Amino acid sequence: MAVQWIVVCHLLLTLLVVISFLCGHWPIFQGTFIERINYFITFGFYDYFKRIVGAVFGSRGTDAVLFVEYFCCDRPNPILQIIYLAIIGGTYYVIVKSSFSYIPGYYLSEVHRYTSLLAVAVGILLFLLTSFSDPGTVNAENVSHYISAYPYDNMIFVEKECSTCKILKPARSKHCSICRRCVARFDHHCGWMNNCIGERNTRYFMAFLFWHFLLCIYGTVAIGLVLAGQVKELKVIYILTVYYGMENSFRSLTPHVVQWLMVSYNTQILLMVFLAIVSLLLAGFFAYHANLCLTNTTTNETFKWEEYLSWQRKVHEAKASTAALKASISGLSNERKPRESKWKTFFRRSRLEDVKIVKDNIYDKGFLHNLCDIIFPLSTRPSFSQAKSKSG
Ligand SMILES: [Zn+2]
Ligand SMILES: [Zn+2]
């Protein structure tokens, strides 16, 4: 029974750390211990570490840490790419070592030895495509066309020059401070890919997320079927009911079967738990990005919209309080009809406060059009080069 509790604690702890790390900054976790764990993992721990290094090794130690930080966080580097390859390679290796001896089994045919390898290879191929493809770098030659691709909405995108690249910034583009270039329809800089996610490679990035979600589900189900096959082949149910005289019902047998699996196949159980957690995280991440793609928004634009809307709200609040102040002054001067002017003031104020500040995304042209923008980026279409030659 002790093994079971270790697995459960391991599962809960992993889940807590992963959720805190990835989602701890979300508004729903504000003020909770998940937010505090997130702060500690993402900032607090590193801050303490820097202080300790500074206290022990002085300014030379701090400089060395800052140099490593600069190299790891502010410049393109392959650290996370190597970690990704280590995770996918390591997990596949453990699966081969621990579970391939049971394939073919009662529920799995031999073909899964090859399809699993193929599935992993496709995953790595999508990773390489996303990592090494051009995200849509804007340069002096193509800037005129990228400018004509998306109009400025004069809300979150206004016509201005990139202070580093010294070219006009097309609407929806952003200068990536890590890659030191302007990227069209910029989504975010992905550390795992060591590349920006932009106009031209969002499709590969989405395919990568979806494929890895499927890959994890495939792994979880296949290992589950390996274990189910072992239960069947070793006649575990038969032994439990006939030899130990247990009642042949799902409720009475399940705890014993689970306990037996946890003791005899703990590697497979841990792999299943790991793959299930990763598949859930990937599903969430994919759903978030799919929603952005289908509404023709980018991660960068969600931040810009947040800023824009909160600024608009402040402007409206300021207008409302100015109007209320004016109304109360006029109410004071008009002493003959104080009651009526108070009502007027009330309605005038509520009308201003009720102004709905809404996001008006001019790039959202409907589900199919938005999907087309992702699968066939504007800069890959023949019209792109035609417009380029026209403008050139
Ligand atoms: Zn730039
Ligand atoms: Zn970048």
Automatic annotation (TrEMBL):
Domain Palmitoyltransferase DHHC: 160-305
Domain notes: The DHHC domain is required for palmitoyltransferase activity.
Enzyme class of the recorded protein, top EC level: transferase
Subcellular location, record wording: Endomembrane system
GO CC terms: endoplasmic reticulum; Golgi apparatus
Catalytically driven reaction(s): L-cysteinyl-[protein] + hexadecanoyl-CoA = S-hexadecanoyl-L-cysteinyl-[protein] + CoA
GO molecular function list: protein-cysteine S-palmitoyltransferase activity
TM stretches of this protein: 7-29, 78-95, 116-133, 208-228, 269-288
Topology term for the membrane: Multi-pass membrane protein
E.C. code: 2.3.1.225
Family matches, as Pfam families: DHHC
InterPro entries: Palmitoyltrfase_DHHC, PFA4/ZDH16/20/ERF2-like
Protein name, as recorded: S-acyltransferase
Species name: Actinidia chinensis var. chinensis
Lineage: Eukaryota, Viridiplantae, Streptophyta, Embryophyta, Tracheophyta
Family: Belongs to the DHHC palmitoyltransferase family.
Record flagged with keyword Transmembrane: yes
GO BP, one annotated term: protein targeting to membrane
Keywords of this entry: Acyltransferase, Membrane, Transferase, Transmembrane, Transmembrane helix
